[in-house]
Amino acid sequence: AQYLYLIIDSLVMTTFFAILPQIFKGISNFGSGATSIQEAERYALMYFWWFMLIWAFGGRTIGGTIITAFQDYDVTVARAQQIVYTLANNIPTSTSFRWIGWILLQTGMILPFMYFLQFNNFLFTALKLDCCARGTAGGGPGGVVPYRIYVNAGVIFLCVVALAPLCPVLAPVAMLAFLFISPLLKWANIFV
Q1: What number of other Cβ atoms are within 10 A of residue 96's Cβ?
Q2: Counting C-beta atoms within 10 Å of the first and last residue's C-beta, which end of the chain has fewer, N or C?
Q3: What is d(CA 72, CA 64) in angstroms, rounded to the nearest whole number?
């Protein structure tokens, strides 16, 4: 059950982060008041970045602190120090482990399938969804670089800055990810 929890937790997190760019693109297209596609993309990038910064890095810490503190109606400075100490002890083992897995999954599977192999286009063509396949097809002057690449690079850098001092294994994993993201950006801009 313990190992199954880790697999399910990772799959739910990966699925959730995979659909987030589309969610924020929809919010920016319909709710931001943007007057152009570029402005909507900028809003989507901003929403995605702030969400990743606050929820991914601060959500569990802040939420766990609030729930633990008010669970027993024991809101004191000593209790808050104990919660922060417990969270700091969990960073090298659980938090860094989760983000190393996320970085490896992004670098090894999601980014190559989506941007090198154009898997969306193949999938929509196989499912006979011609409208969606035309929307994801390349050609012409080239499209804009997806903001997801920039947000992923920012999150990886944030992992290095925030977590690598406590978990040194994260730094080489992040370096490999950046070595992979560099050619990915060049590939995305090759036809522009």
Answers
A1: 21
A2: N
A3: 13
